[in-house]
Amino acid sequence: MLGSPDLPSLPIPSKSVPTVKVYPSADEASLAVANQVAAEVKQLELVGKTAVLGLPTGATPEAVYRYWCQFHKERAFHWGKVITFNLDEYWPLPKSSKHSYHYFMEQRLFGPAGFDPRNTFIPDGMIAKAQIDEHCRSYEAAIERVGGIDIQLLGIGINGHLGFNEPGSSHQSATRLVDLAETTRERAQPSFGETEVPRYGITMGLSTILRSRHVYLLAFGAAKADAVHCALHGSIDIDCPGSFLQQHPNVHWVLDTAAAAQLELA
Fold this sequence. Notes:
Blueprint: E1 19-23, H1 26-46, E2 52-55, H2 62-74, E3 83-86, E4 88-91, H3 101-113, E5 120-121, H4 132-145, E6 151-154, E7 176-179, H5 182-192, E8 200-203, H6 206-210, E9 214-219, H7 225-233, E10 251-256
Parallel strand pairs: 1-10, 2-3, 2-6, 3-5, 6-9, 9-10
Antiparallel strand pairs: 4-8, 7-8
Helix pairs in contact: 1-2, 2-3
């Protein structure tokens, strides 16, 4: 694993009781999250607080982003003041690449929903290798300057990763350059076509994620069922980074029936 050192020690609280909601479909779950987060953004605005969101990419949040674009278009919901920090980016990969997360966010959310580009932050996939550590420290500092992340959206990988925090990642980890797991690269390969998936990524660390005030973890489809079960009911262990969410005091798991298939729920 490459990049900047861990953040200062983060206390490990006892296990928290998560909120788990299961919906018949991924679309219904996504609409519920889209509505809930939008309502929380408005509540923060009413008390004079600019909302700070942590955002993922990939297939899991696409429907949420589509609904947010729809809210902006049809309900005059304004996202222009909201500040966002993305979880990760491939390295090395230029922003202009259609496979970059910069491109994904601009096309799927930031452009259509009217986000202010001065308020959107994504790790730089073309930062020179010698400057990566400083870039990662600056990313952490930028999050701290705005008071931390209010609402963090997450997906979970089939190997339990959060962002690009692959198995083996410390719960103390900060934003850094990482080696991508082969399973992560294999899952991404179809979208890259004949282009090889980069072997590295820059990711927000687990410590940074765990400092978010509210977390919404979305997981859809049968392929995620093992990871969801491990993260919710397995031991808290670096082999399943998602398991560290058991220690977060305000995490909401939002699942479809297929992703929840292995859970024992009342």
